[in-house]
């Protein structure tokens, strides 16, 4: 049955790539980094054949959010042989006891580090498994401000966790922030204040801190407001089928809340913006 869908992967991928580039060209150039956004094709629940199909169309970055599925696909003989330059992103919730398993061939970016302890564990595992001479592993800190979401750090802990990664985790490279969430922030108010605040506190240039934000329903908007890494699944590979598992159902998206008013303090603004970021 997915044979039909298979033949469409190339076309749908092409259209998404086009929409990514168009959205990037609509970014306000004076306020936002000019980093070209990276498209991560989220292949969860989809067969290795579809990954190979997208790879053959030029796609290199792929995302998975279950550790076991990432392990299966990243070590799949067909993928290993046909996709030598594949870059795997881990975008799901990570538990410390799964970290060793996670370090698969071609792992490129772990987007969901949500505590200093987890960072330490990823750091020590990477050192032990890959050795000190290997390239540092890129990680992002997952942010969740309002606490309505299940995973991710509140914004006030984001900076310290990023600092911890930079100063204590020699095998890791802090790459930026990741958020799951419909982005409700009002573009006319400029770039996300919370994101800017993190860059300022860390004294990092905005261009060097990535923001992973945006999925099938909102990736263009996310790019317009500064996302540098969009995670797009269903509009490339088709809807996911979750056989009889309520636990696997995608998280429903609450409506975005209204934009902050200008007279609010920057702390309030950043808290509210971050709150909006996490709606998904
Ligand atoms: C599944 C998933 C996506 C992709 O979702 P689509 O709506 O299919 O584009 C993006 N990010 C995360 C964290 C996911 O789990």
TrEMBL record:
Residues 264-280 have a biased composition (Basic and acidic residues). Keywords: Pyridoxal phosphate. The keyword Phosphoprotein does not apply. Residues 251-261 have a biased composition (Pro residues). Residues 243-280 are annotated as: Disordered. The keyword Cytoplasm does not apply. InterPro entries: PLP-binding_barrel, PyrdxlP_homeostasis. Its cofactor is pyridoxal 5'-phosphate. GO terms for molecular function: pyridoxal phosphate binding. The modification N6-(pyridoxal phosphate)lysine is found at residue 44. It comes from the Eukaryota. GO terms for biological process: vitamin B6 metabolic process. Belongs to the pyridoxal phosphate-binding protein YggS/PROSC family. NCBIfam families: YggS family pyridoxal phosphate-dependent enzyme (TIGR00044). HAMAP family: PLP_homeostasis (MF_02087). Pyridoxal 5'-phosphate (PLP)-binding protein, which may be involved in intracellular homeostatic regulation of pyridoxal 5'-phosphate (PLP), the active form of vitamin B6. This is Pyridoxal phosphate homeostasis protein.
